[in-house]
Write a structure and sequence with these properties.
The protein has about 90 residues and is mainly β. It has one domain. It is built from one helix and five strands; from the N terminus they run αβββββ. The radius of gyration is 13 Å and the shape is globular. About 10% of the residues are buried.
Length: about 90
Amino acid sequence: MIRGLKTNLKPDDIDRNPAPFFRQYGGLIIGGRKIIYVNAFRMRPRGVNDWHSRAFDICDGGSNFFGVEYNAESKSFGPFAFNGTG
């Protein structure tokens, strides 16, 4: 499903290149729909080495942090939610 998520990401979905972001993926089922939640951040928070195994919740990260839901069935993204003003 992650491959499908990356394949269906279009330039219109985000106004910057998503490549420089660290990304965390979480699988969810919401109302019977299979959803992949993407938690993305441009930089690894200082002193944090376990970003591969622990979800991050950053406040006021501005455009350096965003979250988005990907619907695997419809192959579509929900709105991108950037995190505060930074």
